[in-house]
Specification:
4-stranded antiparallel sheet; 4 helices; alpha+beta; Translation Initiation Factor IF3; 245 residues; Alpha-Beta Plaits; 2 domains; 3-stranded antiparallel sheet
């Protein structure tokens, strides 16, 4: 009796698995081709944009010193750079927003005709990248850095700290532009837009701007440095495929 019961159970399990496999095979999803079998395919490229005011400025500030020996050049540089970093801290710039960008030491030469170059001294340099989260105050902080010994300033590079919402606005704008263009082509061709077949994002610009070179010169009663954030475009590029009928 035990053997018959076991055989019956196995047979029941086998039938259940067969039924399940058949049901699964019947509901297997199919992938629609990117080029539909009927209708006219239209590919449209569109750029969506929105505008934001940059809220972060990144500037490179550094110290370059020269002396007769490498050790003396480095020592002087370290002393002046310590004052620059202290000024940043007093100004309220967070430690996470200050990063060493470059440290260098190189010999300085005197060149003559028909003679080998002669080392006359050494130049040491130390540059930090500073992110200012209050763009309006960054100019005044740079003035303080120059007073403490900074003699190399590059920038600013202006950007948006959290661009996700702006990028989504640009995406919506890109889809709307693509739809409008598709409708224009469809009308001109005596057809209508049936639907979108596919959307591909081909690039974005989160509002970053190339750095602007700045020059500092020591002068009596020099005016304060001003940095204007202005406005920047946030853009997204889309490639959209439509089906026309």
């Amino acid at each position: 009796m035990r053997t018959i019961a076991t055989a019956t159970a196995l047979a029941t399990l086998s039938l259940a698995m067969t039924a399940f496999t058949g049901a699964a095979a019947q509901v297997t999803p199919t992938v629609e081709p990117l080029i539909p079998a009927s209708g006219t395919v239209l590919d449209v490229s569109a750029t969506g944009r929105t505008t934001r005011v940059p809220d972060v400025a990144t500037i490179r500030a550094g110290v370059a010193t020269q002396n007769a020996t490498a050790a003396a050049a480095l020592a002087e540089n370290a002393d002046r750079m310590a004052r620059v970093l202290a000024a940043l801290k007093r100004a309220g710039v967070a430690t996470r927003d200050v990063a060493t960008a470059n440290v260098g030491l190189s010999p300085q030469y005197r060149y003559g005709e028909n003679v080998p170059p002669v080392i006359t001294g050494y130049q040491a340099s130390n540059t930090v990248s500073v992110r200012f989260r209050d763009v309006a105050k960054s100019g005044a902080i740079l003035d303080a850095l120059v007073k403490e010994g900074a003699n190399q300033i590059d920038g600013p590079s202006l950007e948006i700290d959290n661009p996700d919402a702006a990028l989504d606005e640009a995406r919506n704008d890109a889809v709307a532009r693509a739809r409008a263009r598709a409708a224009l082509y469809a009308k001109a061709s005596g057809m209508t837009v049936a639907r979108i077949v596919s959307i591909a994002e081909s690039g974005e610009n989160a509002g970053g701007q190339p750095p602007v070179m700045m020059t500092f010169a020591r002068a009596k009663a020099a005016p304060s440095t001003a940095i204007a954030a202005g406005a920047t475009d946030v853009t997204v590029n889309l490639s959209v495929r439509f089906l026309l009928k």
